[in-house]
Every structure is written in structure tokens, then in C-alpha cells.
Design a protein that fits this description.
76% of the residues lie in helices and 1% in strands. The protein contains 20 helices and two strands. The protein has helices at residues 7-38, 42-70, 72-90, 96-128, 138-170, 179-188, 193-205, 212-247, 259-268, 280-304, 310-317, 333-351, 355-378, 393-414, 421-442, 449-455, 465-493, 499-522, 529-549, 551-558; strands at 322-324, 382-384. A two-stranded antiparallel sheet has the order 1-2. The longest helix has 36 residues, at 212-247.
């Protein structure tokens, strides 16, 4: 898996890990911040969230176009500094009116900075594998790169949660998901009699001595401030990212070359490096194939990025807020890390060539297993969980399952039976439909979101966290088939003159999917939950059917 890869891959991957850690720390609490700070409805929150995500993934088209003209490295550096300013704005506590303008300005800067950074960094990764000795490692390289992204995302929800708990604890408060909504209703005079009773009960549980108005104002302010500090973590992570990028730049500097620069270098080089030339017909054929794939992935991202919106609402409003037994293992980031160590050391035992390497791997596996057992015995009988913590399961599964995926497809490749990248994308869409089918089954018989907002929900109606965890597991299988393979496909098929632009096109498709995320948020109200997830199931199935209908055309171009 890791053998024979150029050193530049690890430098670029680690730089991306730092940036993604900050981004996903922010994203883990963003929708919760919108509702806690400003009292936005689910529909208003959905519109802001989906528009922001669309901006994050649309701007790489502009970043790619600029990079094709001026160079990838310049755009990456500019992007990091612009993102830093955006996160800095978000981290500053402010009053409601000024906070709204600061927030929208920050979101604009984060979207623009990400557009300059994200796609162009990935193009440089692809450029590392244009060399003949590395070409057959392109797919595995993007799997490793994608795994590094998710290492950053894995630790982000825990950081956001710890920051929230720490800030509330300073004010002798604890997190309770219903308080912000009820507090805003009370302050706006729209709360029901039952809602007032619930808020009074929550105030007593928080040991607050003042009246309901003081409690509502204090809780909203303190929780919002906690989220501000969470956004500040992103600033620190970007400093680490830029330090890695420049500290190891020598390992990938040769990949920071667009077509214009490569041709200029070839003209003055004694070795006369060849730059691939395509006919207009070949260029058109490749661009059409890429656009067809882009059309399919729109629906995947529409479904997948519900994790930061409706799936977070589901975690907050419909999922039990405490766990016991073996379930406690999954809500400790230390235990998840130990499980990852066990997976990788386990693979190393079977893949190592020397007996010394096998012995070391076995010792690491046993050590991690022993620590996991010790940690389990020291856990509290019941652990309280926050809604954002569920977002750690997807990156955990990505990191843990990547070696499994590479071994399976490596074995199939040796037998000449590995599915093509387009076929993997089609299979990913089918598996995504299965993921939301699980959540639809788990949502049967639950009250609608509007009913919960008006009357609350009985504790007996709250569902097991395993419904969400199982959905994240299945969606991760789909993601591993679709996302890294899609990026690899773009890197491989894109005409040389338009590499940055085509990588930007991949992100535009993602942007459109992210904008459609808000469609599901807007029907999150009086519709039965299983019907909400059913919309996503149908979208994934239709996209899979379309993908398989054009498979021959795509596989022809891929070859």
C-alpha cells in the first residue's frame, strides 16, 4: 500500500490533513452554531449550510482556471491565507447583527480560499504520477491521500465537542440540544405552554438560579461563545498545514508545474520532456466523459453531505443522548485510534516480508488490544454524547477500511478482475441507497420534526445510536468506491491543458450536490422521516442506473 510511493505524496497529504482538520472542526458545529446563535429555523439553516457548501466546492473551478494560467503552488498558498482570515472572523464573539455580517464574510473567504487550495493540491498529487515509474500507483495514491483527509476529519468532531464542553463547564452549564431552540422561542414570545414547562425543567437541571429570560440569554451566549472557540481551532490547524507545505516543498516541487510551464521547461531542457498532445476530437471525448461522471456524483454529494445537516438534526432530536455497554467504545477518540492501529498492524503481520517486521507488527497489535481492554474497563457505565460526535464515524471508517479496500481491489487486479473507476462509481451509488434504507427503517414510527419542535419527544421514542453508525458505515463503503476513484479518474482522463479546470469541474459537481443538500433540509418539517430518507434513496438509484447505462463509453475513455 505505502511501498514505492513518491515522498511528495506524504507531504501533500499531511498538508491537506491539517487544512481538513480545521475545516471539519468548523463543519461539525456549524449548523448547531447557526441555530444556537441566531435561532434560525431548520429551513433557514439548510439554505445557509447548502449555499456555503456549494461555494466551497464551486470555487475550485475558478482556482483551477487561475492555476492553469499562473501555477498551482501560488494558488495553494493564497488559499491558505484567505481561509485563515475567514476562520479568524468566525472565531470572534460578537453581537447578533455584527455577528451575522462577520459570519457571511467569513464563509465567503473560507469558500474562496478552499477553492484556491483544495483542487490544486490534488492536481499536484496527480502530477506526481505522470512519471512512468509511478503511473500504475495512481489509484492507490489517491486512496492514501483520501485517507489522510479523513484523519483530519476523524479528530475534528472530538475537538469541537471538547471545546464546547470546556467553555460551558466554565459557566457551570452542560450541553442539552433542546435548550437553544426553546430559549429563542421564549425570547421571541413564540413558545408554547409545554415548551415553557420543558425550559423551566431544563433550567432547574442546569442549577441556574435566575429567571427563564436570564437563563435563555445566558445559555445562548455561552454556547455560541463555545462554538466561536471551536472555529478558532481551525486557525491553528492552518498554521500547521502551511508549515508542512513549505517545510517539505522540495519533495513535490517538480509536480508544481502546469502545461504552460512544462512546455517552457521542455523548450529549454536538453532532455526535451514530452508533453502529451491530444487531437480536438480526443479532447472533446474526454471532456464529455468527465461531464457525464460529474452529473452522477451530484446526487451522491446531495445524499452524503446530509451528515452535517439532517443527519445531525436526527442525532440531536431523535437519537439517545447516552450509551452503555460496548457502544461506549465508539465514542472515545482514543479507542477509535487504537482500533485503527490494530487494523494496520494486523495487515502488516500478513504483508510483512521479514520475520522482524512481523514480530514488531504482532507486538503493536497486542499492545493496542491490551490498551483497548484497559480503557474499556475504566469507562463510565454510561457516556453522554453530543450530536456532532457522530460525524467522527465516517472518517474513522474511511481510515480503517482503506487498507481493506486496497487489498480487495489489489487482489482483483492481479486476477484481471478489478472493476474500472467508472464501474466503482456506479456501485458506490447503489451502496449509498442501501445506507439511507437503513436510516429509513430506523425512522419508522417516529414523530415528524414539526411535532418534535412543538411537543418534544419522549425518551422512550429515542432510537439507538447504532442506526446512525450503521448508516455511516455503509455510506463509507460507497464513498471509498466513489470519491477517491472519481478524483483519480479526473486526474487520469483530463486533457493536459485543462487539468486544473477539469479538477475544478469535479468540485463544481460536488458544489451542485451540496446546494441540493438544502432541498432535503427544506422538507425537514411535516414530512415523515422515512419519506425524507426515501427521497435520497430514489436519487441514488436513478443516478446508479444512469451510470451503468453509459458504462461502455466511460470505460473506453478510461483505457
Amino acid at each position: 500500500m505505502f511501498e514505492g510511493q513518491p515522498k511528495g505524496l506524504y507531504a501533500l497529504a499531511l498538508a491537506n490533513t491539517g487544512e481538513r482538520f480545521g475545516y471539519y472542526t468548523m463543519l461539525a458545529i456549524f449548523t448547531l452554531f447557526l441555530q444556537a446563535k441566531f435561532g434560525f429555523t431548520a429551513s433557514e439553516t439548510s439554505d445557509i449550510f447548502s449555499t456555503f457548501l456549494a461555494g466551497v466546492y464551486f470555487t475550485p473551478l475558478i482556482g483551477g482556471w487561475l492555476a492553469d494560467k499562473f501555477g498551482y503552488g501560488k494558488m495553494v498558498t493564497s488559499g491558505i491565507f484567505i481561509m485563515f482570515l475567514g476562520y479568524l472572523l468566525l472565531s470572534i464573539p460578537a453581537g447578533n447583527d455584527s455577528a451575522k455580517w462577520m459570519m457571511f464574510g467569513a464563509l465567503t473567504m473560507i469558500a474562496l480560499g478552499t477553492g484556491l487550495f483544495k483542487g490544486n493540491l490534488q492536481v499536484m498529487v496527480g502530477n506526481l504520477y505522470d512519471a512512468p515509474q509511478y503511473r500504475n500507483k495512481r489509484d492507490s495514491a489517491f486512496s492514501i491521500f483520501y485517507m489522510a483527509i479523513n484523519i483530519g476529519a476523524l479528530y475534528a468532531p472530538t475537538m469541537a465537542t471538547e471545546m464546547t464542553n470546556w467553555m460551558l463547564a466554565k459557566s457551570n452549564l452542560t450541553y442539552e440540544g433542546q435548550i437553544p431552540s426553546l430559549a429563542h422561542q421564549f425570547l421571541n414570545g413564540t413558545i408554547t405552554e409545554k415548551g415553557t414547562e420543558m425550559l423551566e425543567s431544563l433550567k432547574v437541571a442546569q442549577n441556574f438560579s435566575g429567571d427563564l429570560a436570564a437563563f435563555s440569554t445566558t445559555y445562548i451566549d455561552k454556547l455560541s461563545e463555545a462554538y466561536n472557540y471551536g472555529f478558532g481551532v481551525a486557525c491553528i490547524s492552518l498554521i500547521l498545514s502551511i508549515a508542512i507545505y513549505y517545510g517539505f516543498r522540495s519533495t513535490f516541487k517538480h509536480a508544481d508545474v502546469n502545461t504552460k510551464q512544462a512546455q517552457a521547461a521542455a523548450a529549454t531542457s536538453t532532455t526535451q520532456q514530452q508533453v502529451e498532445e491530444l487531437s480536438p476530437a480526443e479532447t472533446k471525448q474526454r471532456i464529455i466523459a468527465l461531464c457525464l461522471v460529474f452529473a452522477v456524483v451530484i446526487f451522491f454529494w446531495m445524499a452524503f453531505h446530509q451528515n452535517g445537516l439532517t443527519m445531525t438534526f436526527f442525532a440531536r432530536d431523535y437519537t439517545a443522548n447516552s450509551v452503555s455497554g460496548l457502544d461506549r467504545l465508539g465514542f472515545s477518540i482514543i479507542n477509535l485510534t487504537l482500533l485503527i492501529v490494530m487494523v494496520y498492524s494486523g495487515f502488516s503481520i500478513f504483508q510483512s516480508v521479514t520475520s522482524k517486521a512481523k514480530t514488531i507488527s504482532t507486538a503493536v497489535f497486542i499492545g493496542a488490544l491490551a490498551l483497548l481492554g484497559i480503557n474499556y474497563t475504566t469507562l463510565d457505565p454510561s457516556i453522554t454524547i453530543l450530536p456532532q460526535i457522530f460525524q467522527q464515524f465516517n472518517p474513522f471508517f474511511v481510515v480503517a477500511l482503506t487498507p481493506v479496500s486496497l487489498v480487495i481491489f489489489g487482489s482483483l487486479a492481479k486476477k484481471g478482475k478489478e472493476p474500472s473507476a467508472p464501474r466503482k462509481i456506479g456501485l458506490g451509488m447503489l451502496i449509498a441507497a442501501i445506507g439511507f434504507t437503513i436510516l429509513a427503517i430506523g425512522s419508522m414510527g417516529l414523530p415528524t420534526p414539526d411535532e418534535v419542535a412543538a411537543n418534544g419527544i419522549e425518551s422512550s421514542q429515542l432510537v439507538s445510536p447504532n442506526w446512525l453508525i450503521s448508516t455511516y458505515l455503509v455510506l463509507t463503503f460507497a464513498e471509498l468506491l466513489l470519491s477517491p476513484m472519481g478524483i483519480s479518474f479526473v486526474s487520469k482522463v483530463a486533457p493536459p491543458k485543462y487539468k486544473g479546470l477539469m479538477m475544478g469541474g469535479w468540485f463544481v459537481a460536488t458544489a451542485l450536490g451540496n446546494k441540493l443538500v438544502g432541498v432535503i433540509g427544506n422538507i425537514w418539517g411535516n414530512m415523515q422521516l422515512w419519506m425524507v430518507w426515501g427521497v435520497l434513496i430514489v436519487c441514488c438509484l436513478v443516478a446508479a442506473l444512469f451510470m451503468f447505462s453509459i458504462m461502455k463509453k466511460l470505460e473506453k475513455v478510461a483505457k
